[in-house]
Amino acid sequence: MTSPVTLLKAWKMLPKKQLGQNFLTNPAIPRAIVNRAGISAGDVVLEIGAGLGALTVPVAGAAGHVYAVETDRRLVDLLGTELLLHKCDNVTVITADILRLDLGNFVRDAGIDRPLVVIGNLPYHISSQIVVRLIEARRWIDRAVLMFQKELARRFMAKPGGRDYGRLSVMLAYCAEVRSLLTVGADRFFPKPKIDSEVIEIRFRETPVHPAPDEAFLFRVVKAAFGQRRKTLRNALAGSELHIPAASAEQALTAAGIDPARRAETLTVAEFVALSRTLGNMPR
């Protein structure tokens, strides 16, 4: 692995702060990620944010094929050179914004015949958006191994009852098993971020433990409940984009066996599913 400082200097580039670019400097970290992710020759990997190739190269050494997505056009030629230098002939570089990539169309167009393994060191400012996109496209994904700023990773793994528990905690718990793989210190990056990072694995279930009759509506209910998380559920739902009268919100909560005075952060996935089912059956 070539030092990112050396590479960027040689190519007369600087990291783009607006893209959240923080490049790994220790080659042991990408190797550890690949090992703990269990990448094997049978895997087709989609890497989000290939950057300078620090993770791409070891992933390519373990996987059957890698599709490396990079949105910064400045880095594409540099990345291609690094892949050529390391003889990574099983990597296809895609210059695209991951938030605009239709994963279903991509899988079909590429002729991929198995669920993807998604991997990447995600920029903080779009991490949540990417996770939502992966949840929506999970029919084409086996698992995702992603690096986030530590505070955000903790929210994704949070359980009911704590302040870290929120909308994405519920969405992930609904459809996946989430676990931590390793922590990466801030001093392992250039430029050095303010806080440490954490690598987590999101392994999608074939079927949710508590399937909702209308998943899209469930996620709208979850979003509404956490939209004003300091309020009681009755008032949060009544004041949300769902436009539910306060009396109807109270009726639905009671019918679902939920005290209207509770707050969103106390509800389990099963309770959110029950609430969405009750609200969905009410006249609108």
Automatic annotation (TrEMBL):
<keyword id="KW-0694">RNA-binding</keyword>
<dbReference type="InterPro" id="IPR020596">
    <property type="entry name" value="rRNA_Ade_Mease_Trfase_CS"/>
</dbReference>
<dbReference type="InterPro" id="IPR023165">
    <property type="entry name" value="rRNA_Ade_diMease-like_C"/>
</dbReference>
<feature type="binding site">
    <location>
        <position position="70"/>
    </location>
    <ligand>
        <name>S-adenosyl-L-methionine</name>
    </ligand>
</feature>
<dbReference type="GO" id="GO:0005829">
    <property type="term" value="C:cytosol"/>
</dbReference>
<comment type="function">
    <text>Specifically dimethylates two adjacent adenosines (A1518 and A1519) in the loop of a conserved hairpin near the 3'-end of 16S rRNA in the 30S particle. May play a critical role in biogenesis of 30S subunits.</text>
</comment>
<dbReference type="InterPro" id="IPR011530">
    <property type="entry name" value="rRNA_adenine_dimethylase"/>
</dbReference>
<keyword id="KW-0808">Transferase</keyword>
<protein>
    <recommendedName>
        <fullName>Ribosomal RNA small subunit methyltransferase A</fullName>
        <ecNumber>2.1.1.182</ecNumber>
    </recommendedName>
</protein>
<dbReference type="GO" id="GO:0003723">
    <property type="term" value="F:RNA binding"/>
</dbReference>
<keyword id="KW-0489">Methyltransferase</keyword>
<dbReference type="Pfam" id="PF00398">
    <property type="entry name" value="RrnaAD"/>
</dbReference>
<keyword id="KW-0949">S-adenosyl-L-methionine</keyword>
<dbReference type="GO" id="GO:0052908">
    <property type="term" value="F:16S rRNA (adenine(1518)-N(6)/adenine(1519)-N(6))-dimethyltransferase activity"/>
</dbReference>
<keyword id="KW-0698">rRNA processing</keyword>
<feature type="binding site">
    <location>
        <position position="121"/>
    </location>
    <ligand>
        <name>S-adenosyl-L-methionine</name>
    </ligand>
</feature>
<dbReference type="InterPro" id="IPR029063">
    <property type="entry name" value="SAM-dependent_MTases_sf"/>
</dbReference>
<feature type="binding site">
    <location>
        <position position="24"/>
    </location>
    <ligand>
        <name>S-adenosyl-L-methionine</name>
    </ligand>
</feature>
<dbReference type="InterPro" id="IPR020598">
    <property type="entry name" value="rRNA_Ade_methylase_Trfase_N"/>
</dbReference>
<feature type="binding site">
    <location>
        <position position="22"/>
    </location>
    <ligand>
        <name>S-adenosyl-L-methionine</name>
    </ligand>
</feature>
<feature type="domain" description="Ribosomal RNA adenine methylase transferase N-terminal">
    <location>
        <begin position="29"/>
        <end position="206"/>
    </location>
</feature>
<feature type="binding site">
    <location>
        <position position="49"/>
    </location>
    <ligand>
        <name>S-adenosyl-L-methionine</name>
    </ligand>
</feature>
<dbReference type="InterPro" id="IPR001737">
    <property type="entry name" value="KsgA/Erm"/>
</dbReference>
<keyword id="KW-0963">Cytoplasm</keyword>
<comment type="similarity">
    <text>Belongs to the class I-like SAM-binding methyltransferase superfamily. rRNA adenine N(6)-methyltransferase family. RsmA subfamily.</text>
</comment>
<feature type="binding site">
    <location>
        <position position="97"/>
    </location>
    <ligand>
        <name>S-adenosyl-L-methionine</name>
    </ligand>
</feature>
